[in-house]
Design a protein that fits this description.
By secondary structure, this protein is mainly alpha-helical. The protein is 34% helix and 0% strand.
């Protein structure tokens, strides 16, 4: 099974943040370790919740706090 490709933007950010050395940015296992270190720091700082894998599904960004859609109000004299 092939690993998913890591975008150039992610690699650029890992380089900028100091998690990845420029000479090693083309080695997939090094990039994977940099992502693991970044995630560990984010978990430690409370930015993200701890999980077992980087492949855990990301929660949807929809507003879960919004109430369910209200049924349309009935208009007197109309038939449904």
């Amino acid at each position: 099974m092939r690993r998913p490709a890591i975008s150039a933007k992610v690699i650029k950010e890992l380089l900028r943040l100091g998690y990845l050395q420029p000479a090693k940015r083309f080695k997939p296992h090094i990039v994977q370790r940099a992502l693991v270190r970044l995630r560990a720091d984010l978990v430690r700082d409370g930015v993200v919740k701890e999980s077992n894998s980087l492949r855990d599904p990301i929660p949807s960004t929809t507003d879960d706090n919004q109430p369910a859609a209200q049924p349309a109000a009935s208009v007197p004299g109309s038939s449904t």
